[in-house]
Amino acid sequence: MQPNTYHYLTENEERLAFIRLHPEWYRKLTRDPEQITEFEKEMKYFFGRTPVQRIEQFGNRLQMMNMLIQMAKIMKEG
Q1: Over 80: is that where the pLDDT of 23 sits?
Q2: Residue 14 and residue 40 in contact, taking contact as beta carbons nearer than 8 Å
Q3: Cβ contacts of 49 within 8 Å, gap of 6 or more
Q4: Does residue 73 carry a pLDDT above 90?
Q5: How many whole angstroms separate alpha carbon 52 and alpha carbon 34?
């Protein structure tokens, strides 16, 4: 593996964790370091860091808060 690619991977714990879980990416990056952008995309998707996933997570949190507020209102009335 090229030193700059190796340094890129080791400077972030999340990247190392992803490489450990998906060793095929180590082989891909060793053969073709230009695939680093694909690696980043795959890693973000795996850890739920894409914009779509973040919006979904935010929506789920809003639903949960709304449900808790509704339950508090019911408890207060009863």
Answers
A1: yes
A2: no
A3: 43
A4: yes
A5: 25
